[in-house]
Amino acid sequence: MSTELNSGIPAGPLEKKWDNYKANMKLVNPANKRKYTVIVVGTGLAGGAAAASLAELGYNVKSFCTHDSARRAHSIAAQGGINAAKAYPNDGDSVWRLFYDTIKGGDYRAREANVYRLAQNSTSIIDQCVAQGVPFAREYSGELANRSFGGAQVSRTFYARGQTGQQLLLGAYSALMKEVEKGGVELFPYREMLDLVMVDGKARGIITRHLQTGEIERHAADAVVLATGGYGRVYYLSTNAMNSNTTAIWRAHKRGAYFGNPCYVQIHPTCIPVSGTHQAKLTLMSESLRNDGRVWVPKKKEDLKKDPAQIPDEDRDYFLERKYPSFGNLVPRDVASRNGKEMCDEGRGVGETGRAVYLDFRDAIKRLGEAAVAEKYGNLFDMYHEITNENPYKVPMRIYPAVHYTMGGLWVDYSLQTNLAGLFAAGECNFSDHGANRLGASALMQGLSDGYFILPYTVTNYLGTYSQELLKKVDTSHPAFEQAEGEVRTEIKRLLTVGKTGKRTPTEIYRELGNVVWEKIGMARDEAGLKEAIQKIDELQHDYDTNMLLTGDENLSTNLETAGRLADFLQLGRLMASDALQRRESCGGHFRLESQTPEGEAKRDDENYAYVAAWEFQGKGKEEVMHKEKLVFENVKLSVRSYK
Ligand SMILES: Cc1cc2nc3c(=O)[nH]c(=O)nc-3n(C[C@H](O)[C@H](O)[C@H](O)COP(=O)(O)OP(=O)(O)OC[C@H]3O[C@@H](n4cnc5c(N)ncnc54)[C@H](O)[C@@H]3O)c2cc1C
Q1: Does domain 268-403 have CATH number 3.30.360.10?
Q2: What is the pTM of this model?
Q3: Per-residue pLDDT tens digits for 80-102
Q4: How many angstroms separate the alpha carbon of residue 81 from the centre of ligand 1?
């Protein structure tokens, strides 16, 4: 039976809610902090920041990641920047405006209170990172520089060339290593979390597999934080790191944690187009490029194969500038992606496959000079050159939308706690702040806000609230650990047994799954397509269960890793289709063909769908139950999102 969810938003006016939370939270005295252990899974910006900050408070932290080193998380790939309402350029920015842009950008499908807190924390993040030595770009005068990103008319994005994620992660990593050195954090690299352990209704540990030795391990704690990134790789091809997966949050979901808005996926407009079936990953060209690059296609089909330099301005259709004069090339990602696809569907796409549009720097180079453009975007231009063998200083880039970010994730309340006591989720793996569409440069902001500035308070509040119970320690000999480990081992054995006689490799099935979700739960969705997706995913699930070929042994097989992650992607893919099917409105990245305005824009239905869909697992092969969290807007007026 479906129930209404309680988001636990504190009372009081919007701008005082977080202060009120902190003023009323339970504390843990310094001597007692040493008695608690917190597991943090993930060492990206969210997990790295959380582990360092919790250890700094005095808790014992166990930090897990799948890589050889904590500093190799996917966050390192972030290019363009991080938003903050510092208003340095004096162009009218404020906490309120960042909040408002984020709510509007998410198409009014995010919680007001969470987003306001995010905007409030944004300014402290920059101070924290500068103090750590993060080399943000600066003006000639020495002040921190800002640039613009989509969905905003102010410049509030802080950046370190095209390597912002790397520099921020080095900051978080240094904070983490300081705590490792002091003995507050123990690192567990090469570990994949395969299960969550619940004891008496509280999260008390995890089961992991060592990715080099195959060893299955038990780890106990008093609270568990998941910061394991997004699930974009359900599409097989995406801009996410190859290692990104959904396993940790999906296994927690199977233990009872609700999954919020799984169908909200962001498809980024500026990626290097797919070039063939050999690819396992796609490459992003940062949104920052839309500050100076102009997006266009030829007006006339006979010009499609012409050298773009030979096409005069009057024969170019700068379609974003034409359709959205206020925001131009800086419309949000969902809008830019849909328009790019539309041009290609109309037969005006360029390049070999006809599935690309131009991103052109000719005018910027004329206006600013090549050196100034190189100064801002040099490494991105070099990357493009290396991959395509075309020089973007001379010919326009060719770009096409690709899967990039997942707004859905584990449902969390205001304190970032899932519906399971003691299980928290932070960063991209929770559903919390971006509604149906994330604005550029807001993911890094959210991950660091969660890790540095929210979890240290909310985990403390949890430990303080349940201190009597939690101080009675649970260790890994508890039957719940025995049972969870047993289930993990049984599944591995089952896979290896089926794998001896099966015919299809996990990668073959995975590619096919990716194709189904891209075609049917991608940039446009409709009822028939979504039903077809469910049917096809069920067929792939059958293949997975009965006909998978798995070579290698229990300890060393990397196929086993792929197969385990695929099991979770298959079930998640099906849930994404069910979620998209029930949401018979268009909003943000979720574009239902049946719900569009006469101009082809997304048409929301606030009366019936202004809620978060939080899904409860019912067992393999069974339909999940949907719970609703009603979204209440007391501070912004729901309006039609317009960038015209
Ligand atoms: C190419 C690219 C560029 C981007 N650029 C920007 C940008 O400029 N600005 C912006 O705001 N956002 C950007 N984003 C989005 C942003 O980078 C991510 O949303 C953010 O970095 C996610 O951080 P995270 O800490 O939540 O997770 P991640 O950085 O993905 O870290 C996940 C961690 O969890 C671990 N993990 C995962 N599963 C398991 C498991 N089962 N067991 C143990 N450990 C596990 C991993 O090892 C890793 O340590 C970009 C994204 C991409 C793909």
Answers
A1: no
A2: 0.96
A3: 899 999 999 999 999 999 999 99
A4: 14
